[in-house]
Design a protein that fits this description.
alpha+beta, binds flavin-adenine dinucleotide, 27% helix, 381 residues
């Protein structure tokens, strides 16, 4: 079997791996990115047309990183000469007794990000597609929007090739069978080639635990189902008329999100929670019972969608770390191996910035961005 020696190897060409490749190539670093499926496949977490982006975070540690994340996307757009972010406005709403909106509003105020706050009745008057119960708490962020997901991933791979030239090697349809950490440098073992790298970034999403059994952060892999509705009258659900939305209720299962009709796929709506699955063995079919759950939510909050036809469905995976946090750090005792598992169902908006963070860690051993809350902390003894 051939052996390739390379400075940087990246496992996984999803949102995080593609961003790491782009940022390393921008720095003139030789790299190989290895993907088990075809580029742009639909078996992980980064497929589909769009993802929500927002400063609207209840956790201020995430909110504080969002200005840098927005900046990272702007820089990529400028360099690639294309637009990936679409400003739609975003509404966060919760029933009485749930302090989610209060925390989001505090984060927006701290950041100085413009927002509107009011009751469900006030908001529904302004946005008649919504029928948010009067006593709900609501905050609206005009700068929230949509990121073109699959296109952003493809463009970063393309940019890594364009900027890196022959310093960038892209190996798709190449499953990594094992990572050999027995020697002083990580060895990536595939069916056709062994890759010896000075630095290894493992951005394998739902498969991180399989590739790195010693990675101490427990992750759960959940199956996410997404519905695209085709309302009889689509006009109120177009971009500019209908914002992205996030509803957070009292318990974990009572959380839903969605976005306007983009690009012509229908109005997206989905529940945040999902069942735990084996990433290699789960059904691509959306259950009838799930459709009813989402319709019941819409019946109360966005009634014109509740009985609309479902034109398309999608299944996707979350890799959920404890407390819905991200996990980005060196493998314990291996400063040459970085692990990036920043998902928990909300990682895409950060991915371009996380690519920069991974390139920092790989080339400098550190980063100036405040990511301590994503780093692994061994349990107190
Ligand atoms: C339904 C849904 C909705 C979401 N909505 C939002 C949103 O609105 N806003 C937001 O910010 N985020 C959102 N997210 C989260 C976001 O999409 C993810 O955090 C992000 O895409 C994770 O990217 P990743 O690179 O870690 O994972 P992936 O894209 O899964 O990439 C991992 C890659 O590693 C490859 N791989 C695994 N094992 C191997 C191996 N042995 N050899 C070679 N390659 C391997 C896989 O094939 C895969 O391509 C959503 C996610 C889902 C599923």
């Amino acid at each position: 079997m051939d052996t390739l020696k390379i400075k940087h190897a990246i496992i996984g060409a999803g949102a995080m791996g593609a961003a790491a490749a782009y940022h390393l190539a921008r720095r003139g670093e030789p790299l190989a990115i290895i993907e088990r499926f075809e580029l742009g496949h639909a078996r992980g977490s980064s497929h589909g047309a769009a993802r929500i982006t927002r400063h609207s975070y209840a956790d201020p540690r995430y909110a504080r990183l969002m200005p840098s994340a927005f900046q990272a996307w702007r820089e990529l757009e400028a360099e690639a000469g294309t637009s990936l972010y679409l400003r739609t406005g975003g509404v966060s709403f919760s029933p009485p007794g749930v302090d989610y909106v209060e925390k989001v509003a505090a984060s927006l105020e701290e950041l100085g990000v413009p927002s509107w706050r009011g009751s469900g009745r006030d908001f529904s008057v302004l946005h008649p597609a919504f029928a948010i119960p009067d006593r709900y708490d609501v905050v609206f962020e005009p700068d929230a929007g949509i990121l073109a997901t699959a296109r952003a991933v493809a463009i970063q791979i393309e940019m890594a090739r364009r900027v890196g030239g022959d310093r960038t090697l892209v190996l798709d349809r190449t499953p990594v069978r094992a990572i050999d950490l027995g020697g002083d440098r990580p060895v990536i073992v595939t069916d056709s080639i062994r890759i010896v790298a000075d630095r290894l970034i493992v951005a394998a999403g739902a498969w991180v635990g399989r590739l790195l059994p010693d990675w101490p952060v427990p992750v759960r892999v959940t199956r996410q189902q997404v519905l695209y509705f085709r309302p009889a009258n689509p006009a109120p659900f177009q971009i500019g008329q209908f914002p992205v939305f996030i509803y957070k209720g009292a318990d974990e299962d009572d959380a839903f999100y969605g976005m306007p009709d983009f690009p012509g796929l229908g109005v997206k709506a989905a529940r945040h929670a999902g069942p735990e699955v084996d990433p290699d063995a789960h059904s691509p079919t959306v259950e009838e019972s799930y459709r009813s759950i989402v319709r019941d939510f819409l019946r109360v909050h966005i009634p014109a969608l509740a009985d609309a036809a479902i034109g398309m469905t999608e299944v996707c995976l979350y890799t959920v770390a404890p407390n819905d946090d991200f996990a980005i750090d060196f493998l314990p005792a291996r400063p040459d191996v970085m692990v990036a598992s920043p998902c928990s169902g909300h990682g895409f908006k950060f991915s371009c910035l996380i690519g920069r963070i991974l390139a920092d860690l790989a080339t400098l051993g550190t980063t100036d961005l405040p990511i301590d809350h994503w780093r692994y902390r061994p349990p107190a003894t």
